[in-house]
Amino acid sequence: MLSHLVLVVSVLLSIAGPSAAYWKGFNLGGNLPSGACKTTDDWAHDFSTLQSLPGYFSSARLFASSDCNTLANAVPAAVASGTTLLVGVWTEDKAHFEAEKAALMQAIQQHGTNWIIAVSVGSEDLYRAETDAATLAGQINDVRGMLCGLGACNIQVGHVDTWTAWVDPKNADVIRACDFVGHDGYPYWEGVSADQGLNAFRENLEKTRNAVGSVKPGVWVWVTETGWPVTGSQNGLASAGTDNAQAYWKSVACEAFRGLHTFWYTLQDDTTNPNNPSFGVLGADFKPLYDLSCPA
Length: 296
Description:
Elements: H1 2-16, E1 24-28, H2 40-52, E2 59-62, H3 70-81, E3 84-89, H4 94-111, E4 116-123, H5 133-149, E5 157-162, H6 163-166, H7 172-177, E6 180-184, H8 197-215, E7 220-225, H9 242-259, E8 262-264
Parallel strand pairs: 1-2, 1-8, 2-3, 3-4, 4-5, 5-6, 6-7
Helix pairs in contact: 1-8, 1-9, 2-3, 3-4
């Protein structure tokens, strides 16, 4: 068992690169579990909760910039709490994309850039077949140009998608446009049993790394989404539940946080549709649903 854990750590470190410090945080949506938009006070509560969890989390990934006034409401709370953000910019249609860029520009003009980790242009657009690689690459470069125009050329710009999208050769133009690649992988959705979750996670991450390295060597692969549901239906051999979610956290999260830029899915999940699996690690009372501690 010890030799297996050493192998896991060495593989994760080789994927991440030589740096000894990594961003670690959670995915946070702009809506409350009820569906209502979050206020600045709600964001402040999220960020203080993150920092109170075992391991202390001071980073978060946001999916949008303009939707629910995400940046307008979240950034003041982030700046006040010392929280840094992986910013999301939606790309679905031109009007929405322009509104997202405008919200990001306004946030930078008002608050500077110290709160920004990086910017992800789009999220799983390729997986959903909502765009093509050339269009998405153009949008990534568009946002990079906007940032440079604001004196923020140092901010990395990339894209987040599933490992299945990254290994598809037709999406190579997106890899070429990225400063970083965000990897989403869910063994649960692949029907893998919880006890095999770590192996599946490692294998799929390595597939993304190999695909990225063959197109643009040196680009880091970040883990931008992974997790295990506490509630939900059986999916092949994958069973939801707090015991399996905790097992996946202990095996995957605790190792990934030590060797990769990692954003876990998710702090709290949407509870408006009981038919959807819930990946949240906190309940409605903002208390952990299972043990989130990791070995020192």
